[in-house]
Protein backbone atom coordinates (compact mmCIF):
# COMPACT_ATOMS: atom_id res chain seq x y z
CA UNK A 1 0.00 0.00 0.00
CA UNK A 2 1.27 3.48 -0.81
CA UNK A 3 2.58 5.86 1.81
CA UNK A 4 0.60 9.06 2.15
CA UNK A 5 1.83 11.56 -0.46
CA UNK A 6 0.77 15.04 -1.57
CA UNK A 7 2.21 14.97 -5.10
CA UNK A 8 2.32 11.91 -7.33
CA UNK A 9 4.88 11.57 -10.13
CA UNK A 10 3.78 9.28 -12.95
CA UNK A 11 5.35 7.51 -15.90
CA UNK A 12 3.23 6.16 -18.76
CA UNK A 13 4.13 3.05 -20.75
CA UNK A 14 2.29 2.98 -24.07
CA UNK A 15 1.54 6.10 -26.11
CA UNK A 16 -1.28 4.70 -28.22
CA UNK A 17 -4.94 5.65 -27.94
CA UNK A 18 -5.53 4.69 -24.31
CA UNK A 19 -2.13 6.00 -23.23
CA UNK A 20 -3.10 9.37 -24.69
CA UNK A 21 -6.45 9.36 -22.88
CA UNK A 22 -4.83 8.71 -19.50
CA UNK A 23 -1.90 11.08 -20.03
CA UNK A 24 -4.20 13.91 -21.10
CA UNK A 25 -6.42 13.44 -18.05
CA UNK A 26 -3.44 13.28 -15.72
CA UNK A 27 -1.86 16.42 -17.15
CA UNK A 28 -4.96 18.53 -17.64
CA UNK A 29 -7.61 17.37 -15.20
CA UNK A 30 -6.24 15.38 -12.24
CA UNK A 31 -4.95 17.53 -9.42
CA UNK A 32 -1.62 16.95 -7.67
CA UNK A 33 0.12 14.80 -10.28
CA UNK A 34 2.97 15.22 -12.71
CA UNK A 35 3.54 13.06 -15.78
CA UNK A 36 7.31 12.79 -15.70
CA UNK A 37 7.94 10.58 -18.72
CA UNK A 38 6.52 8.15 -21.27
CA UNK A 39 7.85 5.15 -23.13
CA UNK A 40 6.81 3.32 -26.27
CA UNK A 41 8.80 1.60 -29.04
CA UNK A 42 6.99 3.93 -31.45
CA UNK A 43 6.99 7.02 -29.25
CA UNK A 44 7.77 9.27 -32.24
CA UNK A 45 4.25 8.63 -33.50
CA UNK A 46 2.93 10.46 -30.42
CA UNK A 47 5.06 13.59 -30.89
CA UNK A 48 2.10 15.87 -31.61
CA UNK A 49 0.13 15.11 -28.46
CA UNK A 50 3.21 14.81 -26.26
CA UNK A 51 4.19 18.32 -27.38
CA UNK A 52 0.64 19.46 -26.71
CA UNK A 53 0.79 18.12 -23.14
CA UNK A 54 4.32 19.32 -22.51
CA UNK A 55 5.76 15.88 -21.77
CA UNK A 56 9.42 16.13 -22.75
CA UNK A 57 10.97 12.92 -21.38
CA UNK A 58 10.25 10.32 -24.05
CA UNK A 59 11.82 6.88 -24.35
CA UNK A 60 11.58 3.87 -26.62
CA UNK A 61 12.70 1.59 -23.77
CA UNK A 62 10.04 1.00 -21.04
CA UNK A 63 12.83 0.18 -18.57
CA UNK A 64 13.66 3.90 -18.56
CA UNK A 65 10.25 4.57 -17.04
CA UNK A 66 10.21 1.54 -14.75
CA UNK A 67 13.57 2.44 -13.23
CA UNK A 68 13.17 6.21 -13.25
CA UNK A 69 14.08 7.58 -9.81
CA UNK A 70 11.54 10.38 -10.06
CA UNK A 71 8.59 8.12 -10.91
CA UNK A 72 6.28 7.04 -8.06
CA UNK A 73 3.67 5.22 -10.13
CA UNK A 74 3.44 3.67 -13.59
CA UNK A 75 0.47 3.57 -15.96
CA UNK A 76 0.63 0.41 -18.10
CA UNK A 77 -1.21 1.27 -21.32
CA UNK A 78 0.72 -0.89 -23.76
CA UNK A 79 -0.50 -3.89 -25.77
CA UNK A 80 -2.18 -6.68 -23.79
CA UNK A 81 0.63 -9.16 -24.29
CA UNK A 82 3.03 -6.86 -22.41
CA UNK A 83 0.87 -5.96 -19.39
CA UNK A 84 1.84 -8.80 -17.05
CA UNK A 85 5.57 -8.46 -17.69
CA UNK A 86 5.53 -4.70 -17.16
CA UNK A 87 3.42 -5.16 -14.03
CA UNK A 88 6.01 -7.55 -12.60
CA UNK A 89 8.91 -5.27 -13.53
CA UNK A 90 7.18 -2.22 -12.08
CA UNK A 91 6.40 -4.01 -8.83
CA UNK A 92 9.99 -5.20 -8.48
CA UNK A 93 11.13 -1.61 -9.06
CA UNK A 94 8.87 -0.48 -6.21
CA UNK A 95 6.50 1.50 -8.42
CA UNK A 96 2.77 1.72 -7.76
CA UNK A 97 0.78 0.51 -10.73
CA UNK A 98 -2.29 1.36 -12.75
CA UNK A 99 -2.71 -1.46 -15.29
CA UNK A 100 -5.16 -1.49 -18.14
CA UNK A 101 -7.24 -4.64 -18.52
CA UNK A 102 -6.71 -7.41 -19.19
CA UNK A 103 -3.54 -8.09 -17.22
CA UNK A 104 -2.95 -11.00 -19.59
CA UNK A 105 -4.92 -13.65 -21.46
CA UNK A 106 -3.18 -16.41 -19.48
CA UNK A 107 -4.50 -16.95 -15.95
CA UNK A 108 -1.23 -18.31 -14.61
CA UNK A 109 0.65 -15.22 -15.77
CA UNK A 110 -1.98 -13.04 -14.14
CA UNK A 111 -1.75 -14.94 -10.84
CA UNK A 112 2.04 -14.69 -10.87
CA UNK A 113 1.96 -10.96 -11.58
CA UNK A 114 -0.52 -10.34 -8.77
CA UNK A 115 1.61 -12.35 -6.37
CA UNK A 116 4.71 -10.33 -7.25
CA UNK A 117 2.81 -7.06 -6.73
CA UNK A 118 1.48 -8.30 -3.38
CA UNK A 119 4.95 -9.30 -2.15
CA UNK A 120 6.37 -5.97 -3.29
CA UNK A 121 3.74 -4.12 -1.25
CA UNK A 122 2.87 -1.73 -4.06
CA UNK A 123 -0.56 -0.34 -4.81
CA UNK A 124 -2.23 -1.86 -7.88
CA UNK A 125 -5.39 -0.69 -9.60
CA UNK A 126 -6.91 -2.45 -12.62
CA UNK A 127 -8.50 -0.37 -15.37
CA UNK A 128 -12.12 -1.48 -15.28
CA UNK A 129 -13.28 2.03 -16.11
CA UNK A 130 -16.96 1.20 -16.48
CA UNK A 131 -17.28 0.94 -12.70
CA UNK A 132 -16.67 4.70 -12.67
CA UNK A 133 -19.28 5.54 -15.30
CA UNK A 134 -21.88 7.95 -13.92
CA UNK A 135 -24.82 5.74 -14.91
CA UNK A 136 -23.50 2.47 -13.53
CA UNK A 137 -22.14 4.13 -10.39
CA UNK A 138 -25.63 5.51 -9.74
CA UNK A 139 -27.13 2.02 -10.06
CA UNK A 140 -24.53 0.69 -7.63
CA UNK A 141 -25.41 3.44 -5.16
CA UNK A 142 -29.11 2.63 -5.50
CA UNK A 143 -28.32 -0.98 -4.58
CA UNK A 144 -26.20 0.09 -1.61
CA UNK A 145 -28.99 2.43 -0.46
CA UNK A 146 -31.45 -0.49 -0.61
CA UNK A 147 -33.61 1.37 -3.13
CA UNK A 148 -34.28 -1.94 -4.91
CA UNK A 149 -34.35 -4.06 -1.75
CA UNK A 150 -32.83 -7.53 -1.84
CA UNK A 151 -31.21 -8.08 -5.21
CA UNK A 152 -32.92 -10.68 -7.42
CA UNK A 153 -31.76 -10.05 -10.99
CA UNK A 154 -29.15 -8.12 -12.97
CA UNK A 155 -29.37 -7.57 -16.72
CA UNK A 156 -26.43 -6.18 -18.68
CA UNK A 157 -26.59 -5.27 -22.37
CA UNK A 158 -23.35 -4.56 -24.22
CA UNK A 159 -23.34 -4.15 -27.99
CA UNK A 160 -20.58 -2.61 -30.09
CA UNK A 161 -21.39 -0.37 -33.06
CA UNK A 162 -19.28 -2.43 -35.45
CA UNK A 163 -17.26 -5.65 -35.30
CA UNK A 164 -13.47 -5.78 -35.08
CA UNK A 165 -11.45 -7.16 -38.00
CA UNK A 166 -10.99 -10.93 -38.08
CA UNK A 167 -7.23 -10.53 -37.65
CA UNK A 168 -7.85 -8.89 -34.29
CA UNK A 169 -10.32 -11.58 -33.27
CA UNK A 170 -7.69 -14.26 -33.83
CA UNK A 171 -5.44 -12.81 -31.10
CA UNK A 172 -8.10 -11.29 -28.82
CA UNK A 173 -8.69 -14.29 -26.58
CA UNK A 174 -12.29 -14.59 -27.81
CA UNK A 175 -15.46 -12.65 -27.20
CA UNK A 176 -15.77 -13.61 -23.53
CA UNK A 177 -12.23 -12.54 -22.54
CA UNK A 178 -12.03 -9.62 -24.94
CA UNK A 179 -15.47 -8.02 -25.00
CA UNK A 180 -17.59 -9.50 -22.22
CA UNK A 181 -14.86 -9.15 -19.59
CA UNK A 182 -16.15 -5.66 -18.75
CA UNK A 183 -19.69 -6.96 -18.33
CA UNK A 184 -18.61 -9.88 -16.17
CA UNK A 185 -16.84 -7.36 -13.96
CA UNK A 186 -19.98 -5.22 -13.93
CA UNK A 187 -22.01 -8.11 -12.52
CA UNK A 188 -19.47 -8.58 -9.71
CA UNK A 189 -19.38 -4.82 -9.10
CA UNK A 190 -23.14 -4.29 -8.94
CA UNK A 191 -23.94 -7.45 -7.00
CA UNK A 192 -21.04 -7.36 -4.57
CA UNK A 193 -21.04 -11.13 -4.98
CA UNK A 194 -18.92 -13.80 -6.59
CA UNK A 195 -20.39 -16.18 -9.17
CA UNK A 196 -21.10 -19.88 -8.60
CA UNK A 197 -21.95 -21.08 -12.10
CA UNK A 198 -22.29 -19.95 -15.70
CA UNK A 199 -24.26 -20.99 -18.77
CA UNK A 200 -23.52 -19.58 -22.23
CA UNK A 201 -25.13 -19.63 -25.65
CA UNK A 202 -23.63 -18.03 -28.73
CA UNK A 203 -23.66 -17.78 -32.51
CA UNK A 204 -22.06 -16.14 -35.52
CA UNK A 205 -24.75 -13.74 -36.74
CA UNK A 206 -22.81 -10.59 -37.60
CA UNK A 207 -19.71 -11.48 -39.60
CA UNK A 208 -18.86 -14.95 -40.99
CA UNK A 209 -15.16 -13.99 -40.87
CA UNK A 210 -15.36 -13.94 -37.08
CA UNK A 211 -16.59 -17.52 -37.15
CA UNK A 212 -13.80 -18.47 -39.52
CA UNK A 213 -11.38 -16.94 -37.00
CA UNK A 214 -12.72 -19.39 -34.40
CA UNK A 215 -14.98 -17.07 -32.41
CA UNK A 216 -18.61 -15.99 -32.10
CA UNK A 217 -20.07 -12.49 -32.37
CA UNK A 218 -23.33 -12.83 -30.45
CA UNK A 219 -23.79 -14.32 -26.99
CA UNK A 220 -26.04 -14.59 -23.96
CA UNK A 221 -24.63 -15.67 -20.60
CA UNK A 222 -26.54 -16.53 -17.44
CA UNK A 223 -24.73 -16.35 -14.11
CA UNK A 224 -25.82 -17.78 -10.77
CA UNK A 225 -24.41 -15.66 -7.94
CA UNK A 226 -23.35 -16.76 -4.48
CA UNK A 227 -25.76 -14.25 -2.93
CA UNK A 228 -28.68 -16.04 -4.62
CA UNK A 229 -29.28 -13.51 -7.39
CA UNK A 230 -29.25 -14.30 -11.12
CA UNK A 231 -27.56 -12.21 -13.81
CA UNK A 232 -27.95 -12.20 -17.58
CA UNK A 233 -25.53 -10.58 -20.03
CA UNK A 234 -26.27 -10.18 -23.73
CA UNK A 235 -23.59 -8.97 -26.11
CA UNK A 236 -23.22 -8.38 -29.83
CA UNK A 237 -20.33 -7.24 -31.96
CA UNK A 238 -22.63 -5.00 -34.01
CA UNK A 239 -25.57 -2.75 -33.15
CA UNK A 240 -26.37 -0.65 -36.21
CA UNK A 241 -27.72 2.22 -34.07
CA UNK A 242 -24.55 2.78 -31.99
CA UNK A 243 -22.80 1.79 -28.79
CA UNK A 244 -25.49 0.11 -26.68
CA UNK A 245 -24.59 0.04 -22.98
CA UNK A 246 -27.42 -0.55 -20.51
CA UNK A 247 -27.95 -2.08 -17.10
CA UNK A 248 -31.04 -3.06 -15.12
CA UNK A 249 -31.24 -4.40 -11.58
CA UNK A 250 -34.41 -5.81 -10.03
CA UNK A 251 -35.07 -6.58 -6.39
CA UNK A 252 -37.66 -7.07 -3.68
CA UNK A 253 -38.37 -3.32 -3.39
CA UNK A 254 -38.13 -2.18 -6.98
CA UNK A 255 -35.97 -1.73 -10.05
CA UNK A 256 -33.18 0.55 -11.23
CA UNK A 257 -32.04 0.85 -14.82
CA UNK A 258 -29.89 3.04 -17.06
CA UNK A 259 -30.39 4.15 -20.61
CA UNK A 260 -27.76 4.95 -23.21
CA UNK A 261 -25.95 8.27 -23.23
CA UNK A 262 -27.01 10.37 -26.23
CA UNK A 263 -25.35 13.32 -28.00
CA UNK A 264 -28.44 15.35 -27.06
CA UNK A 265 -31.65 14.60 -25.18
CA UNK A 266 -33.95 16.25 -27.72
CA UNK A 267 -36.91 14.19 -28.92
CA UNK A 268 -38.81 15.36 -32.00
CA UNK A 269 -42.42 14.27 -32.41
CA UNK A 270 -44.44 14.73 -35.57
CA UNK A 271 -47.03 13.05 -37.76
CA UNK A 272 -44.70 10.13 -38.44
CA UNK A 273 -44.00 9.53 -34.75
CA UNK A 274 -41.16 10.41 -32.39
CA UNK A 275 -37.44 10.49 -33.06
CA UNK A 276 -34.42 11.05 -30.85
CA UNK A 277 -30.65 10.83 -31.13
CA UNK A 278 -28.81 7.53 -31.53
CA UNK A 279 -26.50 6.42 -28.69
CA UNK A 280 -22.93 7.69 -28.72
CA UNK A 281 -20.98 5.72 -31.31
CA UNK A 282 -17.50 5.13 -29.88
CA UNK A 283 -16.37 3.83 -26.49
CA UNK A 284 -14.11 6.84 -25.90
CA UNK A 285 -17.11 9.13 -26.34
CA UNK A 286 -19.34 7.01 -24.13
CA UNK A 287 -16.85 6.42 -21.34
CA UNK A 288 -14.65 9.50 -21.59
CA UNK A 289 -15.46 10.78 -18.09
CA UNK A 290 -15.08 7.35 -16.50
CA UNK A 291 -11.40 7.29 -17.50
CA UNK A 292 -10.93 10.54 -15.62
CA UNK A 293 -12.78 9.38 -12.51
CA UNK A 294 -10.83 6.12 -12.29
CA UNK A 295 -7.55 8.05 -12.44
CA UNK A 296 -8.77 10.40 -9.74
CA UNK A 297 -9.58 7.34 -7.60
CA UNK A 298 -6.11 5.85 -8.18
CA UNK A 299 -4.32 9.09 -7.34
CA UNK A 300 -6.51 9.56 -4.25
CA UNK A 301 -5.54 6.07 -3.03
CA UNK A 302 -1.86 6.86 -3.52
CA UNK A 303 -2.10 10.25 -1.87
CA UNK A 304 -4.01 8.92 1.14
CA UNK A 305 -2.29 5.56 1.40
CA UNK A 306 -5.56 3.66 1.01
CA UNK A 307 -6.66 0.65 -1.06
CA UNK A 308 -7.84 1.56 -4.57
CA UNK A 309 -11.40 0.67 -5.58
CA UNK A 310 -10.41 -1.92 -8.24
CA UNK A 311 -7.66 -4.26 -7.03
CA UNK A 312 -5.72 -7.15 -8.50
CA UNK A 313 -8.29 -9.85 -7.77
CA UNK A 314 -10.80 -7.82 -9.78
CA UNK A 315 -8.58 -8.41 -12.79
CA UNK A 316 -8.48 -12.15 -12.12
CA UNK A 317 -12.02 -13.16 -11.17
CA UNK A 318 -13.71 -12.07 -14.43
CA UNK A 319 -11.19 -14.22 -16.29
CA UNK A 320 -12.49 -17.32 -14.51
CA UNK A 321 -16.03 -16.31 -15.48
CA UNK A 322 -14.99 -15.84 -19.12
CA UNK A 323 -13.25 -19.22 -19.11
CA UNK A 324 -16.35 -20.85 -17.64
CA UNK A 325 -18.55 -19.18 -20.27
CA UNK A 326 -16.33 -20.50 -23.06
CA UNK A 327 -16.37 -23.99 -21.56
CA UNK A 328 -20.16 -23.83 -21.24
CA UNK A 329 -20.52 -22.80 -24.88
CA UNK A 330 -18.26 -25.60 -26.07
CA UNK A 331 -19.76 -28.31 -23.88
CA UNK A 332 -23.38 -27.06 -23.93
CA UNK A 333 -23.86 -27.29 -20.18
CA UNK A 334 -23.81 -25.26 -16.97
CA UNK A 335 -20.24 -24.86 -15.70
CA UNK A 336 -19.33 -24.36 -12.05
CA UNK A 337 -16.65 -21.72 -11.55
CA UNK A 338 -14.75 -24.18 -9.38
CA UNK A 339 -14.13 -26.25 -12.53
CA UNK A 340 -11.90 -23.59 -14.08
CA UNK A 341 -9.99 -22.30 -11.07
What does this structure look like?
The chain is α/β, with parallel strands linked by helices and 341 residues long. It has 2 domains: 120 residues, NAD(P)-binding Rossmann-like Domain (Rossmann fold, 3-Layer(aba) Sandwich), CATH 3.40.50; 173 residues, Dihydrodipicolinate Reductase, domain 2 (2-Layer Sandwich), CATH 3.30.360. The strands form 3 sheets. A 7-stranded mixed beta sheet has the order 12-11-7-10-9-8-15. A 6-stranded parallel beta sheet has the order 3-2-1-4-5-6, with helices on both faces. The protein has a two-stranded antiparallel sheet with strand order 13-14. Helix 4 packs parallel to helix 5, helix 6 packs parallel to helix 9 and helix 9 crosses helix 13. The protein is globular, with a radius of gyration of 20 Å.
State the share of residues found in helices, binned by percent: 25-40%
Strand runs, count? 15
What is the terminal separation in angstroms? 27 Å
Please tell me the total number of domains: 2
Beta-strand percentage range = 15-25%
Following the backbone from N to C, one meets helices and strands in this order, namely EHEHEHEHEHEHEHHHEHEEEEEEHHHE
* Quaternary status: single chain
Mean pLDDT score: 95
Q: Mind telling me the CATH class of the largest domain?
A: Alpha Beta
SS field, number of helical segments: 13
Q: What coarse outline follows from CA principal-axis ratios?
A: globular
Radius of gyration from CA coordinates: 20 Å
Largest sheet: 7 strands, mixed
Give the class from helix and strand content and strand pairing: alpha/beta
Q: Which fold name fills CATH's third level, the topology of the largest domain?
A: Dihydrodipicolinate Reductase, domain 2
CATH superfamily of the largest domain: Dihydrodipicolinate Reductase, domain 2
CATH architecture annotation of the largest domain: 2-Layer Sandwich
Low-confidence stretches: none
The largest sheet has its strands arranged as 12-11-7-10-9-8-15
Domain GFO/IDH/MocA-like oxidoreductase: 136-256
Protein name: Inositol 2-dehydrogenase
Pfam families: GFO_IDH_MocA (PF01408), GFO_IDH_MocA_C3 (PF22725)
Keywords: Oxidoreductase
Amino acid sequence: MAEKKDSIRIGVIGTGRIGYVHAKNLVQRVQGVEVVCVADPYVDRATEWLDELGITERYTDPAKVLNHDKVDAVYICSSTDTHADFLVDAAKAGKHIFCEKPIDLDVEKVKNALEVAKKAGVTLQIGFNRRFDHNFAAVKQAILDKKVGDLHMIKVTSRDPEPPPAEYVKVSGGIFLDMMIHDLDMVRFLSGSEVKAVSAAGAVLVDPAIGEAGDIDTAVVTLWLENGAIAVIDISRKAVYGYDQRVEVFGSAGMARTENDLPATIEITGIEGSRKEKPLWFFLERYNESFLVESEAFVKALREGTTPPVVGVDGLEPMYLAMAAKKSLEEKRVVEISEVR
